[in-house]
Every structure is written in C-alpha cells, then in structure tokens.
Amino acid sequence: MSELEMQILQIISAAGDSKAKAFQAFQKIQESDYEGARALLKEARDIDLEAHKAQTELIRKELSQDDGEKLPVSLLMVHAQDHYMSSQLVRDLIEKIIDVFESKEVKK
C-alpha cells in the first residue's frame, strides 16, 4: 500500500470514528445527558483533527508539486473527503440538537 493510500485511509478511519462518537452523543441526548453528549462531541472533534491533519498534508503535497506531477484524484480520495465532510456535518447538527433540547428543558 502506498503512502498516499495510507494517508487517505487515515482520513476515512478518523472520520468514521468521529461520526461514531457523534452518534453516541445523539444517544446521550435521548437520555437527556447533555453533558455526556457534549463530552462525546469534544472527542469527535478531537478525532476530526486527525483527519484534518492528514487532509492538510495531502493538500500541502499537491500544492508543492509541479503542474505535471499533481497527486492523482482517485475514487478512494473522493470517498475520504465525503466521509470527512459528513462527519463534520453530523457533529455540527448533533451539537445544534443538544442546544435545542437543552433550551426546551430549561423552559419547563
């Protein structure tokens, strides 16, 4: 496996782990454990940083290449980007859901 493929798989793996933590946070919301949910979202955000670092490294490599030697765009890379973006979206949406549910409980 090439170094490029390893970096791409690192993005996929980190994004998947982050998304799993975000859905665990959603479960905590259903249990009205907002503090636990926020803690899991922080873990998800920290894991996302791993994916972000790998992505940034790939972007840096691409920008440092001559025009004739660009990094190849593969289905695997597109898949990694999709996972990374969806993990961020899930995390952000679940964070907003916490805000909504917490505000409704305060008003009770």
Automatic annotation (TrEMBL):
Location of Phosphohistidine modifications: 79
Cofactor comment: Binds 1 Mg(2+) ion per trimer.
Keywords linked to the UniProt accession: Magnesium, Metal-binding, Phosphotransferase system, Sugar transport, Transferase, Transport
GO biological process, one term: phosphoenolpyruvate-dependent sugar phosphotransferase system
Binding site for Mg(2+): 82
Presence of the UniProt keyword Metal-binding in the record: yes
Superkingdom in the source lineage: Bacteria
Cofactors demanded by this protein: Mg(2+)
Molecular function, one GO term: metal ion binding
Active site: 79
InterPro entries assigned: PTS_IIA_lac/cel (IPR003188), PTS_IIA_lac/cel_sf (IPR036542)
Pfam families: PTS_IIA (PF02255)
Record-given protein name: PTS system transporter subunit IIa
Protein source organism: Clostridium sartagoforme AAU1
Phylogenetic lineage: Bacteria, Bacillati, Bacillota, Clostridia, Eubacteriales
